[in-house]
Write a structure and sequence with these properties.
The complex is a heterodimer of chains A (about 350) and B (about 775).
Chain A lengths: L1 H21 L5 H9 L4 H7 L9 H37 L18 H15 L3 E2 L5 E3 H4 L31 E3 L5 H9 L4 E10 L11 E11 L4 H16 L5 E8 L2 E10 L16 E10 L1 H6 L8 E7 L1 H9 L6 H4 L2 H4 L4
Parallel strand pairs in A: 1-4
Antiparallel strand pairs in A: 2-3, 4-5, 5-9, 6-7, 7-8, 8-9
Helix pairs in contact in A: 1-4, 2-4, 5-10
Chain B lengths: L2 H10 L3 E8 L4 E14 L2 E10 L6 E5 L9 E10 L9 E3 L2 E3 L2 E2 L27 H5 L3 E7 L10 H12 L12 E5 L5 E4 L7 E8 L8 H9 L7 H13 L4 E4 L7 E6 L5 E3 L5 E3 L5 E4 L4 E4 L3 E2 L12 E7 L2 H11 L4 H6 L8 H15 L3 E4 L2 E3 L7 E5 L1 H8 L5 H10 L3 E3 L4 E5 L9 H12 L20 H15 L3 E2 L5 E2 L1 H6 L5 H4 L15 E2 L4 H13 L5 E11 L8 E11 L16 H15 L4 E5 L5 E11 L3 E8 L1 H6 L6 E7 H7 L15 E10 L4 H11 L4 E10 L8 E10 L8 H19 L2 E2 L2
Parallel strand pairs in B: 10-21, 11-14, 26-29
Antiparallel strand pairs in B: 1-9, 2-3, 2-5, 3-4, 5-8, 6-7, 12-20, 12-21, 12-22, 13-20, 14-17, 15-16, 17-18, 18-19, 23-25, 24-25, 27-28, 29-30, 30-34, 31-32, 32-33, 33-34, 35-37, 35-38, 36-37
Helix pairs in contact in B: 5-8, 9-11, 12-16, 12-18, 19-20
Classes of the chains: A alpha+beta (about 350), B alpha+beta (about 775).
Bound molecules: zinc ion.
């Protein structure tokens, strides 16, 4: 009895393996049904196992299961070989020359000066400053007088400031192209009360004949803070934080005493050379330092002009030229390149 | 301390260093030698043989041809192996049978001056054998400072010495003035009359007689050269030398030419004139101060002397002027005459009124010592309007509050004392400011002095403590930045051009209508006529950029600019400024690629960008309205309208305009008002939840009159099918064969979808039939099968 079942199992195994060996891809399902399906002989044997005498039951059971496993394994193996072959064929014909250029949409870009200004503004926004923009045509009062600039200061001459022709469709006030973004200090302070933390980007103008370091139009970013207890130490801390964000950690910053009409004490601010790191190179004229900011404590006269009590509030102001910062950062040696707008130059700042 | 270290430390106390330059002699191996003996050359009449002691064991024999060589002189000896300027090396030589062991040099041979008439005879008994460099201070370092306008006191050697003293704690030593006075008294020779003491508070002078005009001694000429001043003659050089030393400008009048022996300081007469030293005749006004003699102006006070009374080779007797003039008046006069000098640049910033006499005496002493002069007894020093030193209050806590420091009172005192300010203690300190510091007028000025001496680097860095601030961009600013981002993401390159343009560009563009460009704003002092007006439009800038790049062989351009445009407004102080964005497309939108050939940009590339701008801004309601503009080609020219207003224009540049700019090919442009668009941005957006049910797409193609616009068809289609029509996409437009002339075929994908259920095919087909019917009825469409 037992021998018969075992023989039959062996026969099933042999036949199944022979069928699998000959099978093509579409035969697999049939073979699976035929040998492993619910109605297959093998399943039947496994189902009737309980009726088999107990002495041969383990042996028959084990053999039946072995046969089942064998068939499954060889079916899987054969199937993966066959499907594998056809996929490989597909893969082979689908090979691409991946070194051809990709298909892209036109990539525009912001002017490098805009990028620099946005970077600066974002740093100060992070420090709690709000952005203000004011007009490029200003009155003599806002550009000079209110900023503590004496009547006979050389900056007010025709050599240093663009003036508009009197008529020009304007009122009586002497109008000019602002030479600095500082008039915004006055305009903001006139219209609001401290605390003020303000950043002002914009274009400024001076009648300089264009050369590698001069342009009659360039950019400035002005910043100022007015509050109850602003100190020179706060100015230092603020600009050091800015320099670290703008030029990277580990930059040294130094403050040199200087003179500006509307701040006192005033300072010029240098950052350790971004090219050589302070060792000295051509860009920093071998000093290891790059001058990038002018700054100082807002002069009490300015507060009086806008009706603030200089005993009650104090403040600092600073200004920088993004054009110069971009030149230093990218090793550009001629400011005129920014305004010539050669696209071969501009497109390098995607 | 090296010169570089000194420069760096001065920089940190406020004297900005422009340059640190080494000066060097152009010769080597030149020593001081004593001429011990001179004997005739055995075989040459014009040569002599000299015995020279140069401090070595053995004397040298040198053959010399100079006529002025003489026993007992100290002379520069170029030793064998030494070099002259230009690198000429001196060798052992034989001159007509006599060996010469070196050379005695002239000024010219050493490159020190123009005197080639004989050898250089050294003055002041220098030590034998010393290197000539050490005596003449030729190997030196010159530090060039950038003096800020508030520090006129630093425009002198003594002033800078005071700054060095602050750093080192060493006391400043000024030169002693030793004068041997002779009769008669100065006052018998000349009188000084200050008519306008408001403009000339002090006029000091000294008179020196018996002068002999000659070249200055070598040491002085070398020093002047290092200070960047060209030596002239001893008298002129002395006034310049004292100017550099003390900061006090001096003027020397030839007393013989001064009419009536009078110096009158007065305002000029209305029609008075003077010919200045530079040979220019200048008309004066009654606001200008002059120095006059009994008859005429002889100098413009503090600015430049007159040609007539100039020191000349025959001057024997001179009056040294050392005055203090009102700074603002000098500044105004100098500006009005467009005439600047070393003197005016100092007077206009304010010199020390207390040191005028010292400077006059220093100059007199030098004329006595090196120009053979005799100084007349007594000075003439008119000081009708005494300028008193300022005294200021200073609060310790104020200083510390502003600086964020805790500097002690005694240290503040120490710092102020170090710059010669006197401090009296009390609850508030009283600080007396020396007269050479006219910039110190307020307490805050003292704060600055304390800060710079204390050292900015010692002030601790902090951040403002206050809360209550909120940074960022406001909604409008963000919208403007987003507008720029949109243009960039649409593939445009941003450019930045000058805000002043050539008025001729408006003609080139045919953009002359006052309605369009408004009141033009002209610059009073443009750099050139081509930069004469403020731009009323961004277009000229873009056209220039296009032309510039096209000239370099660029085949296509896709650029934009965002910036302000300007229009005059009669009623206001300031013109109207509007932030605009303008774009320009020219040539192929893309280059030829391996996957696609280039396609030329056209109107719809430009319109697509406007579409993107509107979409990004959340403005749903907008349209183009055809309108002719002189700079655009009719038929492809439109204004851009939102619900509220006109926000810009778009179109193809008129071929005539393109031709005037020498541009070949089509140019498409748009210019929009960022301010207006930002003003139109709705507060929110209408957001609907997407339907969860599938959509059905039905295509329809109709033949209509060419004159019917896509916009018209769109309105008709959308009105026909009710709310289940989600979208009608124009996917094809066709004219040509199989379509009658004057007609076009327009094909649409009609997208049907319901928000709450799955549509049946039946409903979609019915929707399509409705659309077809309405198209037939309303626009006479024919259905294309
Ligand atoms: Zn460097």
């Amino acid at each position: 009895m037992s021998g018969k079942v075992l023989d039959e199992l062996e026969k099933i195994r042999k036949q199944a393996l022979a069928d699998i060996e000959r099978a093509s891809e579409r035969d697999f399902d049939d073979i699976r049904v035929k040998y492993l399906g619910r109605k297959s002989r093998l399943t039947e044997i496994l189902k009737t196992l309980k009726d088999i005498p107990s002495e041969i039951k383990p042996k028959v059971g084990k053999t039946a299961n072995d046969v089942r496993k064998d068939i499954e394994n060889s079916l899987n193996k054969r199937s993966s070989i066959i499907t594998g072959n056809s996929m490989a064929a597909k893969i082979e014909t689908g090979s691409e020359d991946i070194t051809k250029p990709g298909r892209t949409a036109r990539l525009g870009s912001k002017h490098v000066i805009t990028q620099t200004i946005e970077e600066i503004v974002e740093i100060f926004v992070g420090l709690g400053y709000r952005m203000v923009e004011t007009g490029e045509v200003e009155t003599d009062y806002y550009n000079f007088t209110a900023l503590n600039t004496p009547e006979d200061h050389p900056a007010r001459t025709l050599q240093a400031t663009f003036y508009l022709e009197e008529r020009a469709g304007c009122g009586d006030e002497r109008t000019l192209l602002r030479t600095q973004t500082s008039p915004a200090q006055i305009r903001v302070m006139e219209n609001s009360k401290p605390p003020l933390y303000v950043i002002v980007p914009g274009k400024v103008y001076r009648p300089d004949v264009p050369d590698p370091t001069h342009s009659p139009m360039f950019h400035q970013v002005e910043g100022f803070a007015v509050d109850k207890e602003i100190t020179f130490g706060d100015l230092k801390g603020t600009l050091e934080a800015f320099c670290e964000k703008m030029f990277g950690a580990g930059r040294k910053v130094r403050f040199r005493p200087h003179f500006f009409p509307f701040t006192e004490p005033s300072a010029e601010v240098d950052v350790s050379c971004i090219v050589c790191g302070g060792k000295g190179c051509r860009v920093c004229s071998h000093t290891g330092w790059l001058e990038i900011l002018g700054a100082g404590i807002i002069d009490p006269n300015v507060f009086e002009v806008v009706g603030y009590d200089p005993e009650e509030v104090s403040g600092f102001a600073f200004g920088m030229a993004p054009d110069r910062i971009a030149m230093l950062k990218y090793g550009i040696t001629d400011i005129r390149m920014f305004f010539e707008n050669d696209v071969r130059f501009l497109e390098q700042f995607k | 301390m090296t010169a570089e270290e000194l420069a760096e430390r001065l920089e940190m106390t406020g004297s900005a260093v422009e340059a640190v330059q080494k000066t060097a002699s152009a010769f080597k191996g030149v020593k001081v030698g004593l001429v011990k003996d001179v004997s005739p050359h055995p075989s040459a009449d014009r040569l002599r043989v000299c015995t020279l002691d140069i401090g070595q064991a053995k004397d040298l024999n040198i053959v010399c041809g100079a006529p002025n060589v003489g026993k007992g002189q100290k002379v520069p000896v170029v030793t064998v192996g030494g070099t002259l300027p230009g690198g000429v090396e001196i060798k052992m030589a034989e001159l007509r049978g006599v060996t010469s062991e070196g050379m005695i040099a002239s000024e010219t041979e050493l490159g020190l001056g123009e005197d080639a008439s004989g050898i250089l005879v050294l003055q002041d008994d220098p030590e034998i054998g010393t290197d000539l460099n050490n005596i003449l201070e030729l190997d030196d370092t010159v530090i060039d400072f950038e003096i800020t306008p508030n520090r006129p006191d630093c425009m002198s050697m003594i002033g800078m010495a005071r700054e060095v003293a602050v750093l080192t704690g060493v006391k400043v030593r000024t030169p002693d003035v030793k004068i041997v006075e002779v009769d008669p008294r100065s006052s018998t020779k000349a009188s000084i009359d200050i008519k306008d003491p408001d403009l000339c508070p002090r006029y000091s002078s000294r008179i020196v007689t018996g002068l002999k005009v000659d070249k200055s001694p070598l040491w002085m000429r070398i020093r002047l050269n290092k200070a960047g001043i060209r030596p002239v003659n001893n008298l002129v050089d002395i006034t310049n030398y004292v100017l550099v030393e003390t900061g006090q400008p001096l003027h020397a009048f030839d007393l013989k030419i001064l009419k009536g022996n009078k110096i009158i300081v007065r305002r000029a007469g209305k029609r008075e004139e003077i010919e200045t030293l530079d040979g220019v005749k200048r008309a004066l006004t009654d606001e200008m101060l002059v120095i006059a003699d009994a008859e005429r102006p002889v100098a413009i006070a503090g600015i430049m002397g007159g040609a007539d009374t100039e020191i000349s080779a025959s001057t024997i007797e001179c009056l040294i002027e050392s005055a203090y003039f009102k700074p603002s008046n000098i500044c105004r006069t100098s500006y009005a005459l467009d005439l600047r000098s070393e003197a005016s640049s100092r007077f206009e910033r304010g010199i020390d009124p207390e040191s005028t006499l010292h400077a006059a005496e220093r100059a007199a002493q030098m004329m006595q010592d090196i120009a053979g002069g005799r100084v007349l007894r007594g000075s003439i020093d008119e000081y009708p309007k005494r300028i008193k030193p300022t005294t200021l209050s200073l609060r310790q806590e104020r200083v510390n509050k502003i600086l964020g420091t805790s500097i002690e009172k005694k240290d503040m005192k120490k710092y102020l004392n170090s710059i010669e300010f006197e401090v009296t203690d009390g609850p508030e300190m009283k600080v007396t400011v020396p007269t050479f510091r006219p910039d110190i007028e307020r307490e805050i000025d003292l704060v600055e002095e304390i800060a710079r001496i204390y050292g900015f680097e010692r002030i601790e860095s902090t951040l403002p403590r206050s809360g209550g601030r909120h940074g960022g961009l406001d909604q409008k600013q963000k919208a403007v930045w987003r507008l720029r981002d949109t243009l960039v993401s649409a593939g445009l390159q941003e450019v930045i051009t000058y805000a002043f343009i050539d008025p001729a560009d408006l003609d080139r563009l045919a953009m002359n209508d006052p309605e369009v460009i408004g009141d033009l704003l002209k610059l009073k002092n443009p750099l050139s006529a081509e930069q004469g007006i403020l731009r009323p439009t961004l277009l000229p800038g873009l056209m220039r950029v296009l032309r510039y790049n096209a000239s370099y062989g660029n085949a296509n351009m896709h650029i934009f600019e965002m910036g302000r445009t300007f229009k005059g407004q009669k009623s206001k102080d300031l013109p109207e400024e509007e932030v605009r964005a303008a774009g320009l497309l020219w040539g192929p939108w893309e280059r030829d690629h391996w996957y696609a050939k280039s396609i030329k940009a056209d109107f719809f590339d430009a319109k697509g960008i406007i579409q993107a701008v509107m979409e990004r801004s959340g403005i749903d309601e907008w349209r183009l309205e055809k309108q002719e503009m002189s700079w655009l080609q009719p038929g492809q020219s439109a204004v851009i309208k939102t619900e509220g207003e006109e926000v810009g224009y778009i179109g193809k540049l008129h071929p005539a305009v393109a031709a005037r700019y020498e541009i070949e090919g089509d140019v498409f442009i748009f210019e929009i008002s960022a301010d207006r668009i930002v003003g139109q941005i709705p507060a929110g957006r209408n957001v609907t939840a997407p339907s969860r049910y599938p959509s059905i797409v039905e295509d329809v193609a109709v033949i209509v009159d060419d004159t019917i616009s896509a916009e018209q068809l769109d309105v008709v289609i959308k009105s026909a099918a009710g709310h289940i029509l989600k979208d009608a996409e124009l996917f094809d437009e066709y004219k040509g064969s199989h379509i009658p002339a004057g007609k076009k075929s327009m094909a649409y994908h009609l997208v049907f979808q319901a928000p709450d259920r799955t549509l049946t095919d039946q409903e979609a087909i019915q929707g399509k039939m409705q659309v077809v019917e309405v198209l037939i009825n309303k626009v006479g469409a024919e259905i294309r099968k």
